[in-house]
Amino acid sequence: DEANGTDSAKAPKVNCEERNVTGIERFTLQILNVSQDLMELLNPNSSDCTLVLFYTPWCRFSASLAPHFNSLPRAFPTLRFLALDASQHSSLSTRFGTVAVPNILLFQGAKPMARFNHTDRTLETLKDFIFNQTGIEPKSDVAVTEADWEGPLPSVMTKGIDWLLLFSLLFLATFVMYATVRTESIRWLIPGQEHEHQE
């Protein structure tokens, strides 16, 4: 019984169909541009697996994860690796429950099967996650290289404008200016400023 229990504990949670890598010389991840749709790249009728990273270029956690994620395609050549800017693909982020970035999901076909939930985001923890979910052994000689720091996923944060924050601040400033001009109409908000009634 114990041997059976051990075997079932080690059984992969996701049974991935491994892709044919014959003729492929360079294993790298694909970054989706604004016009590409993730769902078009995932085949709903297959059982192949894809690891998808939701990131933003100005997030320091995404930047520190980048070289480790860049090296994964060499460790698991039979799997596909995609990355997309969550700020440019907000509908997908919402659809798959991406509240914070970086967020890593393992898809089988077009169905999300597992989420990477470790705070320690290194090549080793990522390899362990993939192996525990799929049972696919990583190549042992893969390490993070200098080239992985350069791309394709950027390991240097870009400075960007948080348009939502800017819009919120502008809205707040406009409201304060309007309220100041119309103090008579909001006098009820200020304690002790009730109108006195003459009898």
Automatic annotation (TrEMBL):
Residues 5-135 form the Thioredoxin domain. Keywords: Membrane, Transmembrane, Transmembrane helix. GO terms for cellular component: cilium. The chain crosses the membrane at residues 163-181. One of its GO terms (biological process) is cilium assembly. The keyword Membrane applies. It comes from the Eukaryota. It holds the Pfam family Thioredoxin. InterPro entries: Thioredoxin-like_sf, Thioredoxin_domain, TXNDC15. This is TXD15 protein. The gene is Txndc15.
